[in-house]
Design brief:
about 300 residues; alpha/beta; Nucleotidyltransferase, domain 5; five-stranded mixed β-sheet; 12 strands; globular
Length: about 300
Amino acid sequence: MTDLRIGIDLGGTKTEVILLSGATGERFRTRIPTVRNDYGATIDSIASLVAMAEAESGISGLPVGVGIPGTISRKTGCVKNANSTWINGHPLQRDLSERLGREVKVTNDANCLAVSEATDGAGRGYELVFAGILGTGCGAGLAFQAQPIVGPNGVAGEWGHNPLPWTSETELRARPCYCGRFGCQETFLSGTGLCLTYTLAGGESLTGDQIMQRAAAGEGRARQVLDTYLDQLARGLAGVINVLDPDVIVLGGGASNIAEIYSRVPELLPRYVFGGECDTPVLRAVHGDSSGVRGAAWLNPL
């Protein structure tokens, strides 16, 4: 019996595969641009990445786990709540299992991040880990004793589609969300939301990296947008603490690389956490944007 496992992370902009040996030994990893707006091509791309990993291992039929930006409905067996909207309503887990000729485990990508970081990352040694993704979208997952908490509706830990706390109705209405509502935290706290904040402040359309470069260079608008973003993030995380009070908050996704998050957000949290004090660590994911793919591989235990 082999100890090799394959993980897939289906992201908004990239799809990644990893081949893990044992608990943490990385044997192979690569990524390709995500095929958008084509469900059949999505199945094909995942199958091709699995084939690449198996070619590297020399073994076929390896266990496969997949993290997606949504969840599998218990009622229908189909994907729901994915911001990669072209996979919604499709039986992705069933179709992948049939295509690959084995049972494929599929769960939310934020749950994969939480499991990975709780196992050997920034959340190691903490009992209850809240893992937020600040990427193309904004999701979150929970791990208790390094095991994912999913819940009967498949949305445990999700925060991206709640309104941003302590925000005016005018600000909320200015941010329509793909889910059909307005003012979801995803429209503020994702990398996409950061870019929207800059545009709404009168700036041109820029990437998150470009905004951070301008902030570092001292541009007033970019600095103001960064300050606003950090305060919004503190409000969003305070809402989590007020409900769950996790032992640690771990952040992944592209926007989690903003260094000032980890110095300034802990200072802002007591303004919004009930009782006016907060000792919750806010840490960057150790494995970066590859943490989710590692957690996906661990969906199949040894």
